[in-house]
Specification:
By secondary structure, the protein is mainly alpha-helical. It has one domain: Four Helix Bundle (Hemerythrin (Met), subunit A) (Up-down Bundle). 75% of the residues lie in helices and 0% in strands. The chain is built from six helices and no strands. Helix 2 runs antiparallel to helix 3, helix 2 packs antiparallel against helix 5 and helix 3 packs antiparallel against helix 4. The longest helix is centred in the middle third of the chain and has 24 residues. The protein is elongated and about 100 Å long. The two termini are 52 Å apart.
């Protein structure tokens, strides 16, 4: 019994499909960047410095909150935040963390410019601004920590062991 060209093509398709299925079974798809301890520590360090900045600002008498008094610290912290954005954007599959750090930077610059234009910073602005940064840095830390999950915990199709 001889194989016809259509039978041969059928078997070749089956073998090719089987080979592709076996190759795909050995591959895993990666959706997020790996956890990076240095980035996590930088998030905590910069978040702490921003919180300290607002603590010092709120401790100052309202008349002592002129922009000039805090200008150099704004520049220093903006540089730290820009470094965090750069670190996050340089890592592949890290869009969520990059976006959070970009939001932090955008708000930092916005609040700095508002302070510079107004020449003062009221409690009514400083307290909610401080709380917003606390939430954003917590979100950044949580996003980085989530990358630390074991492969089993990240796989929603796998049952618990």
């Amino acid at each position: 019994m001889h194989a016809t060209p259509s039978t041969f093509r059928h078997w070749m398709r089956c073998i090719l499909a089987l080979a592709l299925a076996l190759a795909a079974a050995g591959c895993s798809v990666k959706w997020v960047a790996d956890y990076d301890d240095a980035t996590f520590e930088e998030i905590l360090r910069v978040g702490k410095k921003v919180d300290r900045f607002y603590g010092d600002l709120l401790e100052a008498d309202a008349s002592g909150r002129a922009y000039a008094r805090f200008g150099s610290r704004y520049v220093e912290l903006e540089t730290d935040i820009r470094s965090l954005v750069t670190r996050n954007s340089a890592r592949a599959l890290n869009e969520e963390s990059t976006r959070i750090s970009e939001i932090i930077l955008t708000l930092w610059v916005k609040y700095k410019d508002r302070h510079k234009q107004a020449g003062a910073y009221t409690d009514g602005n400083a307290r909610p601004d401080r709380n917003r940064f606390v939430r954003l840095f917590a979100a950044a830390a949580s996003a980085e920590t989530a990358k630390k999950l074991s492969a089993d915990d990240r796989n929603v199709d796998q049952d618990s062991k």
